[in-house]
Design goal:
This protein has 839 residues and is of the alpha+beta class. Strands 1, 2, 4, 6, 7, 9 and 11 form a 7-stranded antiparallel beta sheet that branches. It has a 4-stranded antiparallel beta sheet with strand order 3-10-5-8. Helix 28 packs parallel to helix 30 (493-506) and helix 37 (616-623) runs antiparallel to helix 38. The chain starts with a helix and ends with a strand.
């Protein structure tokens, strides 16, 4: 070991020894410093003593601390602040040894409060005796304090003295004594309160303390004594709130034996007592209580029966179901309504016939029965309802189907198929509604067969809705279309129209092929419906078909449908799994539509669609229409909208288009809007806002793990970020999705008019990495909110298109980023363009 290292080691050892000695010295001096402590001085000695008490591990450790505290308390120099602190510490570290010292302080007006608190928490008879003695000797507020402490200790020996004080002329003493007896809560304390003679102003307080005695007795297992007090305090002569509190105690003490008392009170004139009795009947524990309440049902008058039925319903104990069902035939409508409601909670499959019969009858009872059937649970309930479909009574059959429909029970769909073939037209209509509510993939073929066989337009329309609903519950696109496609081949013209309409909602290759085949149908209405279906298709797959129709059809209706559909397709992507259409391809579709437009209205509809575009090609197309007087107003509006959309991807073209509108339009509001877009472009010039996104990625260390976009961008799945895109910041929670501990990648292309050095100004929530043409330009594994320009880096752009790839990680909360490309001096780069396509 070198001399230097040896010397350093010695210094460390000496420093450690000094710290240990200083710590011991500080602890030793703390009790001396405590004697001189006052409120305006450092609390360090107090904190040291408190730590000593926390660290004390054995009774001996506490005795040592107690001795030091008592010496400080006895020191003639000890002031009020010191003595108060010692009393507080003796609550935690004291023993019977400190009782005489604390007892002497009970008469001290300043320290009595802290001294009795210490004694109040000390175990042993000595502390209790000290407080009782002081209670007899002191007066005024100090005496009230002692009374409170003996109550808090639940000192049974204090009861005789407290019993005498209950009748004291001093109201404060009397209240304290009453409260203390309620705290002690022994049988003797209860007797003292029961025999107390007090003025009217204290009767409620005595009653409350008396009930607290009963509560304590009940908790201690003295059930009979507690029940006697509760019975006494629930008498009619007692104040209402006391009676209610006593009734609750009676329920806890006597359980089902209290049923008669509570039932009697359900007829009381006082609404509060009546409600309390009902609530206590609901809360009464145990099946015996249910049995006791149910046994009273038959003997009660109608209003009482309603009350008890509501109680049994709220208790949810199915053991009461037989007694409830026995009242089904009651002459009183209110009772029958309550019975029906109760069976919805307490009943089972055996209750179904009664409920269905009542539901079929209608009226308030029928409504209650229907509600109960809709909520009735249990094994075999659905099957029991379905069995009623075989009833010879059409009203019962209709009622059963209505219930199955409301329950939307998927297992009952086969029964509804059967009912949809019923000879009764009304039954069929109700069953068809049921199929719309509950049918799934298994019923598709049945519904198609029903639809193709239907004779009336109303039934066919209902089955069409049911078929669409059932197909919508089937996830497999091709599987759900197959039975419908098969049905088209054997259906008549009316049914084909319905089936084609359903296929237009589903999409998929089988459905599309089927609808295409109907374009040549011999029935004109079927062929027209096929065009309408293609125009309403959920994706852009039929766009070529619609374009071909525009070029070839002579039917005006079909041409209008095809034109509208084709314009709509320009907004949509291709079929699921297809690559996303480029902006240039979308603009080409609009250009094709313009070429085929035959009137101003159609051209205006193209402009309305173009307004949502965001490319230089779209702006150029619209600029060509400004010279047409019939389209000028709409073209100007569309051009400003497109320029605003494309200000990030094609800023030069967007600025030129906006300036052109400002110079030529007579629409003052539009001129103002165009200028506002330019102002915003100037404010946010250089920010990249056109991005493809990929993710989220969650495996491994999200900042350090290289995921697919980082290793091979072409192998990753990308989508255009259209949500959460602001003029400056991109919100990835909207664009990618929320969640913690994940990463996302975004990618775009930046056109530079020349090879040049540039500055990158970035903000991110949280970590960020940036690559320019595959070269890492910046990396910062941060945890922070997104603040524009917080990170800065230098990079180089080549002439032409440069690929920009960014990785942003997410720890939690917000997730966003922003990137701006500027000249090295911070100025804007003229001629820079941004495109997700790189062209």
């Amino acid at each position: 070991m070198s001399n230097t290292r040896w010397a350093r080691g010695c210094i460390v050892l000496v420093a450690a020894a000094v710290l240990v000695f200083a710590g011991r010295t500080a602890r030793g001096d703390a009790y001396s410093d405590l004697v001189r402590y006052d409120w305006d001085q450092s609390r360090l000695p107090l904190a040291t003593i408190e730590q000593d008490i926390r660290d004390a591990a054995t009774p001996r450790d506490h005795l040592v601390i107690e001795s030091k505290l008592l010496r400080a308390l006895a020191n003639p120099q000890a002031g009020y602040a010191c003595k108060q602190f010692v009393c507080r510490m003796l609550r935690r570290a004291g023993s019977p040894r400190c009782v005489p010292v604390l007892a002497k302080l009970l008469a001290d007006e300043k320290l009595s409060h802290m001294a009795r608190f210490a004694l109040q928490n000390l175990p042993g008879e000595a502390a209790a005796t000290a407080l009782r003695t002081a209670m007899g000797r002191l007066s005024g507020d100090l005496k009230i304090g002692m009374i409170t402490s003996v109550g808090a200790r639940r000192d049974p020996k204090a009861v005789p003295a407290l019993a005498k004080l209950v009748s004291a002329r001093d109201g404060g003493l009397a209240r304290a004594a009453i409260a203390a007896l309620g705290d002690i809560a022994s049988a003797e304390a209860a007797k003292a309160l029961a025999g107390a003679t007090v003025p009217a102003t204290l009767k409620t307080q005595v009653a409350d303390a008396y009930l607290r005695c009963a509560d304590r007795m009940l908790a201690d297992g003295e059930t009979a004594g507690a029940a006697a007090i509760y019975r006494e305090m629930s008498a009619a002569a007692k104040p209402k709130m006391i009676r209610i509190a006593a009734l609750r105690g009676t329920v806890l003490a006597e359980k089902e034996k209290a049923v008669d008392t509570l039932i009697a009170l359900t007829a009381d004139k006082d609404i509060d007592l009546k409600r309390a009795a009902g609530q206590f009947l609901i809360e009464m524990p145990g099946p015996a209580a249910t049995k006791a309440v149910a046994a009273k049902l038959v003997s009660m008058p109608a209003d009482g029966q309603v009350m008890l039925l509501d109680v049994l319903t709220a208790r949810k104990d199915t053991a009461a179901a037989p007694q409830v069902a026995a009242l089904v035939g009651s002459k009183d409508e209110g009772v029958r309504v309550a019975v029906m409601k109760a069976l919805g909670v307490l009943g089972d499959a055996s209750s179904v016939p009664v409920l269905v019969k009542a539901a079929a009858a209608g009226g308030p009872v029928g409504d209650a029965a229907t509600g109960s059937l809709n909520q009735l649970k249990g094994e075999g309930v659905g099957e029991a309802i379905a069995k009623l479909l075989d009833s010879t009574d059409p009203v019962v059959r209709a009622g059963a189907i209505g219930v199955l429909t409301a329950r939307a029970d998927r297992t009952m769909a086969p029964a509804m198929v059967k009912a949809a073939r019923d000879r009764d037209e009304n039954i069929r209509k109700v069953a068809i509604k049921g199929l719309a509510a509950a049918a799934g993939e298994e019923q598709l073929s049945d519904i198609v067969a029903l639809l193709t066989a239907a004779k009336s337009d109303s039934e066919r329309s209902g089955l069409e809705s049911a078929l669409a609903a059932a197909a919508g519950r089937t996830a497999d696109v091709e599987a759900r279309a197959a039975p419908i496609v098969a049905g088209v081949t054997r259906a008549d013209a009316g049914a084909k129209v319905c089936l084609v309409r359903v296929l237009s909602r589903l999409g998929g290759t089988k459905a599309l092929a089927c609808v295409r085949s109907q374009l040549k149908a011999s029935a004109a209405d079927v062929a027209t419906e096929a065009v309408r279906a293609l125009a309403a298709w959920p994706d852009a797959s039929p766009a070529p078909d619609l374009l071909n129709l525009l070029k070839t059809t002579s039917d005006k209706t079909r041409r209008v449908l095809a034109f509208r559909g084709y314009i709509r397709m320009a907004h949509l992507s291709g079929a699921p799994g297809w690559p996303e259409r480029s902006a240039a391809a979308t603009t080409a579709m609009y250009k094709q539509a313009l070429a085929l437009a035959t009137n101003v209205a159609e051209k205006k509809s193209v402009l309305a669609g173009l307004a949502g575009a965001r490319s230089a090609e779209a702006m150029k197309l619209v600029e060509g229409l400004l010279a047409d007087a019939s389209l000028k107003a709409e073209a100007e509006v569309a051009l400003v909208q497109i320029a605003g959309n494309a200000r990030g991807s094609a800023p030069t073209e967007a600025r030129a288009a906006l300036q052109k509108i400002i110079a030529s339009t007579t629409n003052a509001a539009l001129k103002q809007k165009a200028q506002a877009v330019i102002n915003e472009m100037d404010k946010y010039r250089g920010y990249l806002t056109s991005w493809l996104g990929s993710g989220p990625y969650t495996q491994g260390s999200v900042f350090n793990t290289a995921y697919a976009p980082e290793k091979d961008p072409k192998s990753a799945k990308w989508k255009v970020l259209s949500k959460g895109v602001g003029p400056q910041t991109i919100d990835l929670i909207q664009g990618i999705g929320g969640g913690n501990n994940r990463a996302a990648y975004v990618m775009t292309n930046v056109w530079s008019p020349a090879a040049q050095a540039v500055g990158l100004e970035m903000g991110s929530d949280d970590g960020i990495k940036v690559w320019i043409d595959g070269k890492l330009a910046h990396s910062n594994n941060a945890t922070r909110p997104c603040k524009p320009g917080e990170d800065k880096a230098n990079a180089n752009l080549k002439r032409g298109w440069n690929k920009v790839l960014v990785k942003i990680t997410q720890g939690g909360a917000d997730w966003a980023f922003c990137i701006r490309i500027v000249k090295p001096d911070g100025g804007a780069i003229d001629g820079m363009k941004v495109s997700t396509e790189g062209k």
